[in-house]
Design a protein that fits this description.
heterodimer; A: alpha+beta; Beta-Lactamase; five-stranded antiparallel β-sheet; about 25% strand; B: alpha/beta; Rossmann fold; 5 strands; about 45% helix; globular
């Protein structure tokens, strides 16, 4: 029984010592005269000293008096005598052996019978944490100064969508103070102009799904600003090592740009309206002439009307596929195919048009003859290649060396079958030859296919060379 | 045969459209703008269909406004729009659902077929 009690005491003693040695904080015990009675392994490691140099030494004399620190003196001589314990006492000091360090000292009085009282000091090196905090503060100050430098108004939002900080540009533009914005939701600002369900929905996805908002447009009346159009962009911002994420929301005032776009669109619509009306007048004149013309000639008038219609459609297609000064050939071909399918074939047709195109660009000057060439070749195939009403046409454009190769292929009756219905109109062939010459190209003779017809045309690259924008504009 | 109200601001285009539609055996009435068209639509005159340009003089979407006013006056009226401009999504939203559309320049056959389909719908 007594062995067991002794054993328990022994185990208890070993355990306390083991715990002290395992604790990562540096621990020392001082007697009432501030002499060190013991220290743990963490203390020796942190301060690069040993038990021989430490035990029995007065705290202030330890390590060439490097612990004779005014702040520590204050703690040990003025604070501890009046209190049972002190926590979080911060000591910053240049230690000769380990350099400048910030230590967090916890002190506790220990009373044991017969020793007159001791002091346990737990010393935690928080230098890195403090440095990181200082670095974080400097980063935040830097961020804030960048935020304030950006000309577009912007705000930084917390997880809960409340504003942490707003840039000076934001405060100035919307006539609000920092106090009026901090901690408030964007949707609550002003006269709730930003309280748009679609925007709210998108903003809720920015942080959890890391899904940025790109160019969300809002047009409204803003107090003191009048009617404005803003483009909103938002993205998640995070700091390495920090789990908290924030959202950067930028307000780009695009009112002037929007107005210029609207003016340009109005002008384009006005010009387009006039061009189409003029073409309509020409088609009307032809229709009127056809009314009083002998029947054998009417077909020619109708063909002329169809080609004028094709030119008008091509102008529409150019405006739809144009990327600024150039026209995307692949998109252009697809639009031509779509329009031809709708106008000449219809939904019930057994003839389909497939498009295969490299991503090439041509200048608008040559887009119309190029489109008319494709139109003529494809129309020819539709009209003559499929007497039974079913078949496949492929429009293909690819870059071959420094040339563009346009290929129009059908799997119809073919031109060699003299008995077939495919006898292309002479005028159609003439037009093809003219358009090819206009584009500076050549028709490549095709081999004899078992079925169908292949027309292959090589054209010089119709790309707009870099730096020649002025020529195109002229 | 039907009565078609043609609303186009350009005199020549309007008269050629009248000729094309009359050649298909229909009667035509004509107006050059929204106000003139509304006078006819408010009158007791029988009208089966409205063929209107979308761009009418200074009104960029005048034909769309006219069609809405016309349907409010005559809910059974058939509407055929025409325009030389591309049909944007914004413009589509202004068109009355179920109405027909003809792109300019249109030929006699295209206009006559569109009117035929419009009346048959």
């Amino acid at each position: 029984m007594s062995e067991i009690v002794i054993g328990k005491k022994a185990v208890s003693g070993i355990a306390a010592s083991e715990i002290v040695e395992t604790v990562p904080s540096a621990l020392i015990i001082l007697d009432k005269n501030l002499n060190i009675t013991s220290a743990n392994r963490a203390f020796y490691q942190t301060f690069r000293t040993s038990a021989d140099e430490t035990e029995g030494c007065h705290i202030y004399d330890l390590g060439n008096r490097q612990w004779d620190i005014p702040a520590l003196r204050t703690l040990l001589e003025s604070v501890i005598p009046h209190r049972a314990s002190v926590e979080g006492f911060e000591v910053e000091h240049d230690f000769p052996t380990i350099g400048r360090r910030t230590m967090l000292v916890n002190a506790r009085k220990i009373f044991r019978p017969g020793d007159g009282g001791s002091i346990l000091l737990a010393i935690e090196d928080v230098s890195e944490e403090r440095a990181a905090r200082a670095e974080s503060k400097r980063n935040w100050q830097l961020t804030q100064s960048i935020v304030d430098t950006v000309r577009d108004p912007l705000v930084v939002l917390e997880n809960d969508m409340t504003i942490v900080t707003a840039s000076k540009a934001f405060l100035t533009m919307f006539g609000v103070t920092e106090e009026e914005t901090h901690g408030r939701r964007v949707s609550e600002l002003g006269q709730h102009q930003w309280d748009v369900p679609a925007l709210r929905h998108l903003m809720e996805k920015v942080l959890p799904e890391n899904k940025p908002i790109e160019s969300f447009e809002i047009e409204d009346n803003f107090p003191g600003l009048g009617r404005r159009v803003f483009n909103l962009n938002a993205r998640k911002i995070s700091q390495p090592g920090n789990h908290a994420h924030r959202m950067l929301l930028v307000f780009e005032d695009i009112t002037d740009r929007k107005q210029r776009e609207r003016d340009a669109l109005s002008l384009t619509n006005e010009i387009s309206h006039r061009i189409k009306n003029n073409l309509q007048v020409i088609v009307g004149l032809i229709a009127y002439e056809a009314k009083w013309t002998a029947a054998p000639c009417v077909q020619g008038y109708k063909a002329m009307q169809a080609r004028i219609g094709a030119i008008a459609q091509l102008y529409d297609l150019i405006s739809q596929t144009s990327r600024g000064r150039t026209v995307a050939v692949d998109a252009y071909l697809r639009e031509i195919a779509k329009t031809m399918s709708a106008s000449l074939l219809g939904n019930m047709s057994g003839i389909d048009i497939e498009v295969k195109g490299d991503p090439l660009e041509i200048d608008p000057d040559r887009a119309v003859p190029f489109g008319l060439l494709v139109n003529e070749l494809a129309t020819n195939a539709i009209k003559h290649a499929f007497p039974h009403g079913t078949g496949h046409i492929m429009l293909c454009v690819e870059q071959v060396g420094d040339q563009i190769e346009l290929t129009v292929v059908d799997d119809g009756v073919g031109m060699k079958d003299k008995g077939s219905a495919k006898v292309p109109e002479k005028r159609g062939s003439d037009y093809v030859a003219i358009f090819v010459r206009q584009l500076g190209g050549t028709i490549v003779p095709s081999g004899s296919e078992a079925t169908g017809t292949t027309v292959r045309v090589r054209l010089p690259l119709l790309l707009v060379p870099p730096g020649s924008a002025e020529r195109v504009a002229a | 045969m039907a009565v078609v109200l043609i609303v186009v601001d350009d005199v020549f285009i309007r008269e050629i459209a009248e000729m094309m539609i009359q050649d298909a055996g229909h009667q035509t009435l004509s107006a050059s703008d929204v106000d003139e068209a509304l006078l006819l639509l408010r009158s007791p005159q029988h009208i089966d269909a409205l063929f209107t340009d979308i761009y009418l003089k200074v009104a960029v979407h005048g034909g769309c406004d006219l069609a809405h006013a016309a349907i409010a006056l005559r809910p059974k009226l058939r509407v055929l729009y025409t325009t030389g401009n591309s049909i944007t999504e914004k413009m589509k939203a202004l068109l009355i659902e179920g109405t027909h559309f003809l792109r300019k320049p249109y030929t006699q056959n295209q206009l006559q077929n569109s009117v035929r389909d419009l009346l048959a719908a």
